[in-house]
Amino acid sequence: MAEGALKGLANQRILNDGNGIPCIGFGVYNAQPGKETEQAVLWALEVISATTRQRAPHSSLYPKQAGYRHIDTAAVYRNEESVGNALKKTKVPREEIFVTTKLWDTSQGYKTAKEALEKSLAKLGLSYVDLYLIHSPSPGKALRLETWKALEELQKEGRIKSIGVSNYGVHHLKELLEVCTVKPAVNQIEVTPYLARAELDTFCQKNGILIEAYSPLTMGQKLKEPRLMDLAKKYNKSTAQILIRWSVQHGYVPLPKSVHKDRIESNAEVFDFAISEEDMKTLDELDEYFVTEWDPTKYD
Hints:
Blueprint: E1 12-14, E2 20-22, E3 26-27, H1 35-46, H2 50-55, E4 70-72, H3 80-89, E5 98-103, H4 110-124, E6 129-134, H5 141-156, E7 160-166, H6 170-177, E8 186-190, H7 198-206, E9 210-214, H8 226-235, H9 239-249, E10 253-255, H10 261-266, H11 277-284
Parallel strand pairs: 3-4, 4-5, 5-6, 6-7, 7-8, 8-9, 9-10
Antiparallel strand pairs: 1-2
Helix pairs in contact: 1-3, 3-4, 4-5
């Protein structure tokens, strides 16, 4: 779906396997297991944006899919069970919620990857996940490729709808594409105007691999950067909304995270404006290889 046609959180992009993925996800990295994660996910699923309220002031007129419909967790976050508890409590049907989790490095390997998925499914209380990602390439080539074989088999068994990777650089993707039966549908990486990754972006586009953008808000570290603040003022938006919209207009699926209800709602308010081509270029030129925590795309 073209960026201009995206009107809400539930609108989908199409992956290379034909499955749809909501255009913005809700991340739970660093959300504390228990009440904090559970409440944040419930707020995200049920949030009604200010724009939606303006268009349909009466609750009976709200769109069926108004809130976030894409939740992104991981085994290493230690909050899969809390996400699962929220999924049990929400009135949103399971089939309308796109759930992603990730296989941590210590579980890579053919047998251990299969066991890890079963543990994640049990914690989430689900019979399948919509997307399962290898969290990083860190364990090395042999384990990476063993793990991918396991994911391909799990997908055939219906335990996973789509399979992908996270934090893979171009060399990791080339290595995988040489031997895989199923192409990765997704590469989830850190990418922002301050960390543009042009080569990786081009390679993923060429090979039909969707980029998901984690830490799209730079973990708050660039939200008061003067050039970004100038653009936010121009569009009468927050700097966070500008960063999310930049990601959307690049064709990425951003994964903003917050445990605060007002910010969860605000981060969804990115469908009532578009950044001009000139201003997108200005944002693209902010690239300074700004990494918030780690960069496994550089690993062997």
